[in-house]
Amino acid sequence: MSYDGDTRTVLMFSGVRGDGSPPLADTWNWDGCKWSQEHPASSPAGRSFGAMTYDPGHQVVVLFGGGAANSDPGRNDTWLWNGRDWSQQHPATSPPIMADATLEYDRANRLVTLIGQSLRPADATVTWTWNGQTWSQRHPAHPPPARSGPGVAYGAKSGILYFGGKPGEAGALNDSWAWDGTDWTALHPPTSPLGGYARMAHEDSRNDVILLEADGTWSWDGKTWAQRPGASPPFEYFRSIAADQAHAKVVVFGGKSMQTNVGTDEVWIWDGTTWSQA
Questions:
Q1: Distance between CA atoms of 13 and 171, rounded to whole angstroms?
Q2: Strand-strand pairing, 86-89 and 198-202
Q3: Integer Cα distance of 155 and 147 in angstroms
Q4: CA distance 246 to 269
Q5: 21-49 pLDDT tens trace
Q6: Which helix (H) or strand (E) holds 198?
Q7: Is the separation of the CB atoms in 28 and 36 below 8 Å?
Q8: Burial class of residue 115, CB neighbours in 10 A (0-12, 13-18, 19+)
Q9: CA–CA separation, 217 vs 212, rounded Å?
Q10: C-alpha span between 130 and 132 (Å, rounded)
Q11: By C-alpha distance, which of 80, 101, 102, 98 is closest to 89?
Q12: CA–CA separation, 147 and 176 (whole Å)
């Protein structure tokens, strides 16, 4: 899920129901009140865990890869959404299939940045950038340790911020990292969230970054994390999150219940102070 600055809506593509059926291949947008299905002439194959972000320099949404071992094949294809249709790209260089891929636009360096977990060699965090035509692998001296389920968002005060996740089947990470376009830097804030699976989004007008995880909602001010008072949406695996910049809100959709293992189609909205279910 990603904000689409061209249509000023939140774009969602594909996903799984969680009932063992094949991935969906539908495209929807959220206008701040309701979902509307798009019917493009061309469309990527359905997938789970596709990574998406808006590229304002080229006024398109970028989709890369996806797939999961227990539901659908891994992919390393690149597609662009122009507000009306999808088009597959055939760059000279592409990242390999990877796990837990996340995409974020680096406003300072004007590049779409891909962070994921390499499958060969295993247990390595890799970083690639997209310039609108092709992918380039970056070789930072200090990559974050490998993990699953991290949160990522661009923060105007930190660059791309990378947080948390799980190092394996057990345990949780609550480390914070920043990408400056060349290298990763481990941050050492005085206060940090619990850690583990996390979802993050950038807020322009209020908080630099907002984070949703098992112990509630947190905000990042460029130096430290602060837990926000009030109730948060129930924590669920595999939620999608995006900043709805047109309405100055954050949208959270779907997920899989930790208690029942059943998927949900809930929509939650963060207005900078409180969460409400749409």
A1: 31
A2: unpaired
A3: 21
A4: 13
A5: 888 999 999 999 999 999 999 999 999 89
A6: strand 198-202
A7: yes
A8: buried
A9: 5
A10: 6
A11: 80
A12: 13
CATH number at residue 95: 2.120.10.80
- CA 62/CA 2 separation, integer angstroms: 9
d(CA 160, CA 148): 17
Q: Which amino acid is at 217?
A: T
Question: Structural domain of residue 81, as residue ranges?
Answer: 2-277
C-alpha triplet 192, 266, 25: angle, nearest 5°: 105
144-201 pLDDT per residue, tens? 999 999 999 999 888 999 999 999 888 999 999 999 999 999 999 999 999 999 999 9
To 10 degrees, the CA torsion angle through 271, 199, 82, 264? -80
As a whole number of angstroms, the distance between CA 140 and CA 196 comes to 24
What are 162's two structure tokens?
A: 């990378």
Residue 64: exposed, middle, or buried by beta-carbon count in 10 A (0-12, 13-18, 19+)?
A: buried
Pick from 138, 147, 150, 75: nearest CA to 111: 138
Residue 204's pLDDT is 74
Domain count, the chain: 1
CA distances from 1 to 119, 142, 185 (A): 24, 29, 27
Instruction: Judge whether 207 and 200 are in contact, CB under 8 Å.
Output: no
DSSP state of 245: T
